[in-house]
Amino acid sequence: MDVTIYHNPDCGTSRNTLALIRNAGIEPTVIEYLKTPPTRPVLMDLISKAGLTIREAIREKATPYADLGLDDPTLTGDELLDAMLEHPILINRPFVMTPWGVRLSRPSEVVLEILPVPQKGPFAKEDGELLIDAEGNRVA
C-alpha cells in the first residue's frame, strides 16, 4: 500500500493521523517535513491535489507567519510558497497521499476519506475522543 504522510512528530494531529493509518494495517512512508522539506513542485502538487489554495495550506499558529507579514493579502502564491519552502514550519500538516487522493488531515479523521482499507479495531485520539469502535466502524 503506497501511503505517504508529511509528518511532524511534535504535532498531536499529525500523530493521531499516523496512528489512524497504522490502525488500518498500513505502514506508510513517513516524511518528517521539517527535516526533509518537500520540493516546490511536490508542495504545489500536494496543495493542488488536496483541493486547497496556497493560503489555506499555510500554518499560522506557532510559526513566523505574522512576523513575516504573510497575512498581507497582496502577496502572490509564489511569494507564499517561497516563505513555506524557506520556513517549512509554515506548511500545515499533516498532508497524506494515497492512491485515492491527497488530504490535509485536519482534523486527523479526514485521512479516513482516502484510506482504501477499513480500520482494524478501536481507535481514540490522544485526547481520548473515540473515533473508531471495537468493530472498526467510525463513531458518529
Shape: elongated
- What is the arithmetic mean of pLDDT? 96
Q: What share of residues are in beta strands? A: 15-25%
CATH architecture: 3-Layer(aba) Sandwich
Give a quick account of the main beta sheet: strands, pairing sense, barrel closure.
Answer: 4 strands, mixed
Q: Could you say what the CATH topology is called?
A: Glutaredoxin
Distance N to C terminus: 27 Å
The number of E-state strands comes to 6
> How many distinct folded domains?
1
CATH class: Alpha Beta
In terms of quaternary structure, the protein is single chain
Low-confidence stretches: none
Residue share in helix: 10-25%
Radius of gyration: 16 Å
Order of helices and strands: EHEHHEEEE
Q: What's the number of helices? A: 3
Class derived from helix and strand content: alpha+beta
Describe the protein in words.
The protein has 140 residues and is α+β, with helices and mostly antiparallel strands. It has one domain (4-132): Glutaredoxin (3-Layer(aba) Sandwich), CATH 3.40.30. It has three helices and six strands, in the order βαβααββββ. The chain has helices spanning 12-23, 40-49, 77-86; strands at residues 4-7, 29-32, 95-98, 101-104, 123-124, 130-132. The strands form two sheets. The protein has a four-stranded mixed β-sheet, with helices on both faces. Strands 5-6 form a two-stranded antiparallel sheet. A hairpin with a 2-residue loop joins strand 3 (95-98) and strand 4. The longest helix has 12 residues, at 12-23. The mean pLDDT is 96.
